[in-house]
């Protein structure tokens, strides 16, 4: 078969870092309510991001001259899984650390790197991602936002939607059309850097089913961008986006989102409640955690070695998000708790995760898109 | 994969790919012994590949044994090769000199040893009737039981693989103290480990056969693999195959690396067992009535999977053992338990 997952051994420096991160988190998250821990990477807390940045744990792998730590990708992996397992509020710096920073490092101008990366690494400068548009969801290649050349720069018109925390971010990197027509599909799309405080940018929060304001519609009306706003090669944005996907789809955030549900199940069992059905459910879920962690680590190892395991990453994301979604269902099945944000710990975690779970298999490529990619990898398309 | 791994994989593929064919598989379901094939495996040293374990300077470790057990499952090898490998390893670790003959493996919970003799019942021993000796563990000993001193109660599994009960009363045995960390559970645990790799192999075969079929069968004027409904089923089958392989391989690797083998093996049996049911169901759906016909080889994999997932303990049984490991840590200790169990000892 054309996919393979080798077991990975983490180097000692990564395991040593784990203890440091754990100590930090115990202090930083003391007293944090469990239902907020269940927000995991949709929890926004600038104070936490700055504290994490001060420890050198944002942009860990970036060069020191741009505020990075020049640590290995596997050390970063360990930091990430610890932060996510603890339910820390990482959303403020999340996209800067995972996507925007690495993108600027690779394709940005020297000036952009010097100006933006240190602030990102300090946990002070936040980025949003602009992919979907009104009427453009999974079919990202048909984006209609358009930047036209003007006065040695660009003028941007259009709109992006579902941009997580754009209302609290400083910049957005968006995929927009810079040449050609909609029928050209992938050709003519570019990634552009947009200052969200620029004239002509309107950010409108959209309330989600939890009642929270996580995502936004961002409207661009004659927004003037400098020539340097196009990141990388003009017209090559699609390939640049695709090259990032293995990083985005195989991280620990793709299977740990509902860990708080499992923690609550174990807590209930440890108090002597729940019986055999709960015990079996816990054991099965733990087996999934064990295997998903090894798969995710295996991909981290392949990325570190310079490979691009896109098929493997899609397999892990679909498996991982299905698992994340199964946990609140399991909690309901074996404990039968009424989800309630005013109830006990388990009820509150349950209430929050039940409502967040639908988005696990939507964000970062829907389940159907992923299965299509896997089918292509299998030679069926 | 390591160079050693490549060599082992090439060897086992070469040995099995031509010899384990439809005729041999149908014939083997009568419960006989495929002596010629076994001789070939012996000539290549496979049954004794861990008889000189890495711990004692041997060439091969469990990572290589994984490749062999996985290939055995992939080809539905109707011989107890994985069991012989594990039995040889147990003997070597405990210092018992391996006897000439055909070694098998059994769960030891029905075994009572008093001095040099033993009585009890070893349930559902793979190819028990054809073995010369069986290895099992008790709470504190590794025990070598000669089959000629046992009454054989024949049985088989869904795929016609012999699963015989061995009953004995006062049979003379060889025994030695268990290495640290071993006990009554150990031989059953090794059985579960082997089945997890065999299941990963059989699931890989289901994926391969389903892909081949989806790429040649036409309906409504196009290949069925072109239908999105089929593509998405196949994607799930590929996911289950990948997860099963990872589940099994991480457990074999845990033994080589000195990680927590109890958690790794239990997780492997749970996850491969779950994958077995899902994968068989999808493969049979994709192959339609063709896969339901005896003349199509799909069932050599699917019938084994339905048996193997229950052998040496089902998913629920191993899940309860994981629960016993993690619940005492409490909810707050869950994650630390996972990372510690999967870390290499420093």
Describe this structure in words.
Chain A is an alpha+beta fold. Helices cover 46% and strands 15% of the residues of chain A. A four-stranded mixed beta sheet of chain A has the order 1-4-5-8. In chain A, strands 2-3-7-6 form a four-stranded antiparallel beta sheet, with no helix packed on it. The two termini of chain A are 16 Å apart. The relative contact order of chain A is 0.12. Chain B is an alpha+beta fold and 346 residues long. Chain B folds into two domains: 175 residues, no CATH class; 157 residues, Butyryl-CoA Dehydrogenase, subunit A, domain 3 (Up-down Bundle). Chain B contains eleven helices and ten strands. A four-stranded mixed beta sheet of chain B has the order 1-4-5-8. In chain B, strand 4 and strand 5 form a beta hairpin. In chain B, helix 4 packs across helix 6 and helix 7 runs antiparallel to helix 8. The model of chain B has no long low-confidence stretch (mean pLDDT 96). Classes of the chains: A alpha+beta (381), B alpha+beta (346). Chains A and B meet through helix 1, helix 8, helix 9, helix 10 and helix 12 of A and helix 6, helix 7, helix 8, helix 10 and helix 11 of B. Chain B: Belongs to the acyl-CoA dehydrogenase family.
Please tag this protein with its features.
heterodimer, A: 381 residues, alpha+beta, Butyryl-Coa Dehydrogenase, subunit A, domain 1, Butyryl-CoA Dehydrogenase, subunit A, domain 2, Butyryl-CoA Dehydrogenase, subunit A, domain 3, 3 domains, 4-stranded mixed sheet, 4-stranded antiparallel sheet, 15% strand, globular, B: 346 residues, 2 domains, 10 strands, 53% helix
């Amino acid at each position: 078969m054309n996919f393979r997952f080798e077991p990975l051994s983490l180097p000692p420096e990564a395991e040593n870092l784990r203890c440091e991160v754990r100590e930090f988190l115990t202090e930083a998250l003391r007293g944090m309510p469990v239902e907020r821990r269940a927000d995991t990477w949709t929890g926004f807390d600038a104070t936490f991001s700055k504290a994490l940045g001060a420890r050198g744990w944002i942009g860990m792998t970036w060069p020191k001259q741009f505020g990075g730590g020049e640590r290995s990708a596997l050390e970063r992996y360990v930091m990430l899984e610890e932060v996510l397992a603890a339910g820390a509020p990482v959303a403020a710096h999340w996209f800067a650390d995972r996507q925007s920073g690495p993108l600027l490092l690779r394709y940005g101008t020297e000036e952009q790197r010097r100006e933006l990366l240190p602030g990102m690494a300090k946990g002070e400068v936040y980025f949003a991602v602009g992919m979907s548009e009104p009427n453009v969801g999974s079919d990202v290649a048909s984006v209609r936002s358009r930047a036209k050349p003007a006065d040695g720069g660009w003028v941007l018109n259009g709109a992006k939607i579902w941009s997580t925390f754009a209302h609290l971010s400083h910049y957005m990197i968006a995929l927009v059309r810079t040449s050609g027509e909609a029928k050209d599909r992938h050709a003519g799309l570019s990634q552009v850097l947009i200052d969200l405080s620029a004239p002509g940018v309107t950010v409108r929060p959209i309330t989600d089913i939890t009642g929270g304001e996580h995502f936004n519609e961002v409207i661009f009306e004659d927004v003037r961008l400098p020539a340097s706003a196009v990141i990388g090669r003009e017209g090559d944005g699609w390939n640049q986006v695709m090259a990032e996907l293995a990083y985005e789809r195989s991280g620990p955030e793709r299977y740990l989102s509902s860990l708080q549900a499992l923690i609550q199940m174990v807590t209930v069992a440890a108090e002597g409640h729940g019986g055999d059905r709960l015990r079996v459910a816990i054991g099965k879920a733990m087996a999934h955690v064990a295997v998903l962690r090894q798969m995710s680590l295996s991909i981290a190892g392949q990325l570190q070695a310079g490979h691009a395991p896109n098929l493997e990453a899609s397999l892990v994301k679909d498996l991982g998000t299905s698992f994340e979604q199964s946990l609140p269902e399991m909690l309901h099945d074996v404990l039968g708790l009424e989800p309630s944000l005013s109830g006990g710990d388990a009820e509150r975690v349950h209430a929050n995760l039940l409502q967040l779970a639908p988005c696990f298999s939507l964000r970062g490529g829907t389940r159907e898109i992923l299965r299509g990619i896997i089918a292509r990898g299998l030679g069926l398309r | 994969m390591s160079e050693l791994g490549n060599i082992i994989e090439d060897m086992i593929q070469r040995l099995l790919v031509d010899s384990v064919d439809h005729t041999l598989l149908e014939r083997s379901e009568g419960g006989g012994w495929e002596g010629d094939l076994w001789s070939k495996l012996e000539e290549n040293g496979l049954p004794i590949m861990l008889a000189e374990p890495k711990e004692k300077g041997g060439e091969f470790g469990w990572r290589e044994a994984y490749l062999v057990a996985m290939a055995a499952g992939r080809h539905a090898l109707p011989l107890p090769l994985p069991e012989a490998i594990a039995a040889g390893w147990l003997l070597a670790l405990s210092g018992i000199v391996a006897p000439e003959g055909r070694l098998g493996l059994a769960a030891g919970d029905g075994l009572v040893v008093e001095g040099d003799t033993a009585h009890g019942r070893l349930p559902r021993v793979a190819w028990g009737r054809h073995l010369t000796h069986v290895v099992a563990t008790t709470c504190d000993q590794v025990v070598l039981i000669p089959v000629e001193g046992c009454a054989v109660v024949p049985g088989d599994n869904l795929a016609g693989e012999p699963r015989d009960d061995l009953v004995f009363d006062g049979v003379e045995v060889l025994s030695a103290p268990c290495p640290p960390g071993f006990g009554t559970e150990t031989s059953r645990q090794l059985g579960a480990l082997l089945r997890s790799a065999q299941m990963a192999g059989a699931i890989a075969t289901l994926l391969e056969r389903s892909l081949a079929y989806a790429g040649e069968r036409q309906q409504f004027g196009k290949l069925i693999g072109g239908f999105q409904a089929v593509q998405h089923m196949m994607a799930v089958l590929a996911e289950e195959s990948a997860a099963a392989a990872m589940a099994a391989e991480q457990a074999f690797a845990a033994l080589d690396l000195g990680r927590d083998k109890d958690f790794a093996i239990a997780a492997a049996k749970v996850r491969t067992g779950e994958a077995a049911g899902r994968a068989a169901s999808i493969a049979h759906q994709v192959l339609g009535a063709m896969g339901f016909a005896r003349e199509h080889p799909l069932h050599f994999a699917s019938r084994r999977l339905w048996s193997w997932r229950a052998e040496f303990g089902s998913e629920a049984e191993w899940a309860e053992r994981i629960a016993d490991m993690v619940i005492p840590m409490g909810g707050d200790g869950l994650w630390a338990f996972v990372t510690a169990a999967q870390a290499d000892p420093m």
